[in-house]
Amino acid sequence: MQEILNSRGFMKEEFPFWITRTEQGSLAEHGHEFVELVYVVKGKGSHIFQGTRYDIRAGDVFIINPGETHAYDVEQGEKMEIINCLFMPSFISDALLRELEITTSMDYFYVHPFLKHDVRFNHHLNLLGQEAASVLTLLDSMIREIGARVLGHTTVIKLQLVELLVLLSRYYALMHSRKSYASPRQLDRVMTARRIYGYLERSFDKKITLQSLSGLFNVSTRQLNRIMREEFHKSVFDVLHEIRIERAKRMLAESDEKVIAVAASVGYDDPSFFSRLFVRHAGCSPSEFRSGAHA
Question: E strands, 74-224, where?
Answer without folding.
Answer: 80-87, 125-126
